[in-house]
Specification:
The structure is a single chain. By secondary structure, the chain is of the alpha+beta class. It folds into two domains: about 30 residues; about 170 residues. Helix content is about 20%, strand content about 40%. The strands form three sheets. Strands 3, 4, 5, 6, 8, 9, 10 and 12 form an eight-stranded antiparallel beta sheet that branches. The N and C termini lie far apart (about 140 Å). About 15% of the residues are buried. This is Late embryogenesis abundant protein LEA-2 subgroup domain-containing protein. InterPro entries: LEA_2, NDR1-like. One of its GO terms (biological process) is defense response to other organism. It comes from Gossypium stocksii.
Length: about 270
């Protein structure tokens, strides 16, 4: 038998083409239809550092929210306790406002004179009042500062005189009366005031007046004392006539009613 000797033509042909024994390139396309990817490992590469967000303000916000909530809750509790205390005191003691009465009003002088040239006018008045104060409460007492008494026209535009009442203490279920309270003035008035007052003084049925009394009062209940608050007593509905001769004229006070109102002063304003 004769041995087959391999042909050297492929080797020669390969050497003629490139001189290498590498296999021919594959003509088959990759399975994914794209380019061939090469994954290289770099031992010196590190993952990118991404800093995490810090939430340091959350505890502070929580503390602020808790503080506000507790503050509001405490205020609401205090308001509730004050309302309950006030209700209990009202049910037990039944507090009432003090009452004032204008018992009499005498007009001794009420003169409105005008100069010869009508350039100026002068008003001169003198009134005598009797005022009573009554405390209807059984457990409350009132301590009054001195009163400032003013007499004005019913619309409040014309000032007719002023006077004072002394300070006094009004105990429970008590009544205090002041007689001979003088209210007077002697001042010049402008033309507008004169033109508004003169027709009122000529009315046959009388002109309307009112008395205003301002003071500060402190309320006492046993050993408890309140702060002093301002009050105004307004007695409206007084009908007066000018005096004739030397005898004083007696004003009609049967329809007069006196009301007591609180006077709250905030900076420059009084309510």
């Amino acid at each position: 038998m004769s041995d087959k000797v391999p042909s050297s033509r492929p080797t020669v042909a390969a050497a003629a083409k490139g001189g290498t024994d590498e296999p021919p390139p594959s003509t088959t396309a990759p399975a994914n239809g794209g380019a061939k990817k090469t994954h290289l490992y770099n031992p010196t590469s590190r993952p990118t550092y991404r800093p995490q967000p810090h939430h340091r303000n959350r505890p502070r916000r929580n503390y602020c929210c808790c503080f506000c909530c507790w503050t509001i809750l405490i205020i609401l509790i205090l308001i509730l306790l004050a309302a309950i205390t006030g209700t209990v005191l009202y049910v037990l003691y039944r507090p009432h406002r003090p009452s004032f009465t204008l018992a009499s009003f005498r007009i001794h002088r009420l003169n409105l004179t005008t100069s010869a040239d009508s350039a100026s006018s002068h008003l001169s008045t003198l009134f005598n009042l009797t005022i009573s104060s009554k405390n209807p409460n059984a457990y409350l007492s009132f301590s009054y500062d001195p009163f400032t008494v003013s007499c004005v026209s019913s619309d409040g535009n014309v000032f007719l005189g002023n006077g004072t009442l002394p300070a006094f203490f009004s105990g429970s279920k008590s009544e205090t009366t002041f007689r001979g309270v003088a209210v007077a003035t002697s001042s010049d008035v402008d033309a507008e005031t004169m033109n508004g007052l003169r027709p009122e003084l000529k009315k046959k049925k009388g002109f309307l007046l009112k008395v205003e009394m301002d003071t500060r009062v402190m309320v006492k209940m046993g050993s408890l004392k309140s702060k002093k608050v301002g009050i105004r007593v307004t007695c409206d509905g007084i009908k007066g006539l000018g005096p004739k001769g030397k005898s004083p004229a007696v004003a009609n006070v049967f329809g007069a009613k006196c009301e007591v109102d609180l006077r709250i002063k905030i900076w420059r304003w009084t309510f």
